[in-house]
Amino acid sequence: MLSAAVVAVVALVAAGCGGAADTKDATASGGGGGAKLSLVAYSTPQVVYDELAPKFAATGAGEGTSFTSSYGASGDQSRAVESGLPADVVAFSLAPDITRLVKANLVSSDWTSEPHKGIVTDSVTTFVVRKGNPKHINTWDDLLKPGVQVLTPNPFTSGGARWNIMAAYGAQLKQGKTPAQALDYLKELFTKHVAVQDKSARDALQTFTGGKGDVLLSYENEAITAQQKGEKVDYVTPDQTILIENPVAVTTKAKPEAKKFLDYLWTPAAQTVFAEHGYRPVVESVATKFASRFPDPKTLFTIDDLGGWDKVMKDFFDPQNGSVAKIEEAAGVSTAS
Questions:
Q1: CA 85 to chain centre
Q2: How far apart are CA 283 and CA 14, in angstroms?
Q3: What integer pLDDT is reported at residue 308 of this predicted model?
Q4: How far apart are CA 261 and CA 36, in angstroms?
Q5: Terminus-to-terminus CA distance in the chain, angstroms?
Q6: CATH number at 6-121+245-289
Q7: What radius of gyration, in Å, describes the C-alpha atoms of the chain?
Q8: What is the CB neighbour count within 10 angstroms for residue 251?
Q9: Is 37 in contact with 255 (CB distance < 8 Å)?
Q10: What sign results for the dihedral spanned by CA atoms 66, 72, 73, 78?
Q11: Which CATH superfamily, name and number, covers 123-243+296-330?
Q12: 3-state SS track over the chain
């Protein structure tokens, strides 16, 4: 039998990040030895991977495996790996952060041939509000009410922020507005109502639960995690929102055990742990089991409905010419990545 994981928390400045990432050594002892894998991930699923690491080490496939983990803003983490941060497994907020590593020959170009096209969990963009929703924030239009302060991370460091922006933009289109009107919505939102743009989704949640702002744009799973921790928040999923798809991959230099861990993440056991922490499972049997917890929004659209990530990254998030970059610059927010 394996012992419980012993977790030691240390601080590390990740190479190429321009900021700090949380790192952990999760060591599981066992008679079979085992590899030490490096997991580099975005900030929000830390609590899940801290639970899954020892569970995997307790399986026959993972016996004795231990982990060194690093967590931070998705874009920062991807750039850190590109710049030399060791990684066997990478788990990011959105596909372009994997694509960056494909272009650097650090992840195979066929990573989407894995189960569920390399997507390990789903979520949706939601509104995290104060307990009781005192400002009655239920729709995208409510975010533009006089005096409403909105929090969302910086889209040039955080993958979650990019999902939030595309959710807001796409929602306008689904309401019948033109692309120009949808951009006008983003301009008003960011120049008049967004009060703080933290580096990552987890940092943004901490700022919100610390008392700043009226509503936080966030992953549904972050809202559920906050409630599980006893934070006095509610959340509202607007009628129009985006399907968030979170990718995972092994690197080209990964140890053989990394692929076994990847396979484990799509098992019903692992998917159940994700679901218990508020992530929408991608394995159908587990999704059916948790269907009542994750109701379908009235209008759910995908990034492909907006042209796909290649087009979105160019049109919205190009640091020089992207429409969101220009909005952020007008708001006095850094677009440096």
A1: 19
A2: 33
A3: 97
A4: 12
A5: 45
A6: 3.40.190.10
A7: 19
A8: 21
A9: yes
A10: negative
A11: Periplasmic binding protein-like II (3.40.190.10)
A12: CCCCCEEEEEEEECCCCCCEEEEEEEECCCCCCCCEEEEEEECCCHHHHHHHHHHHHCCCCCCCCEEEEEEECHHHHHHHHHCCCCCCEEECCCHHHHHHHHHCCCCCCCHHHCHHHHEEEEEEEEEEEECCCCCCCCCCHHHHCCCCCEECCCCCCCHHHHHHHHHHHHHHHHCCCCHHHHHHHHHHHHHHCEEECCCCHHHHHHHHHCCCCCEEEEEHHHHHHHHHCCCCEEEECCCEEEEEEEEEEECCCCCHHHHHHHHHHCCHHHHHHHHHCCCEECCHHHHHHCCCCCCCCCEEECHHHHCCHHHHHHHHHCCCCCHHHHHHHHCCCCCCC
Cα distances (angstroms) measured from residue 38 to each of 68, 70, 265: 5, 8, 15
Share of the chain above pLDDT 70, in %: 90
Q: Where in the chain are all domains bearing CATH 3.40.190.10?
A: 6-121+245-289, 123-243+296-330
Question: How far, in Å, CA of 158 to CA of 31, rounded?
Answer: 40
Cβ-proximal residues to 79 (8 Å cutoff; 6+ apart), any chain: 16, 17, 100, 337
pLDDT at 290 over 50: yes
pLDDT band at 330; cut points 50, 70, 90: confident
* Tens-place pLDDT, residues 116-131: 999 999 999 999 999 9
Phi-psi region of 119 (alpha: psi -120 to 50; beta: other; left: phi over 0): beta
Closest to 61 in 3D by CA, of 250, 265, 246, 275: 265
- Structure token digits, residue 185: 């919505």
Mean pLDDT for the stretch of residues 149-156: 96
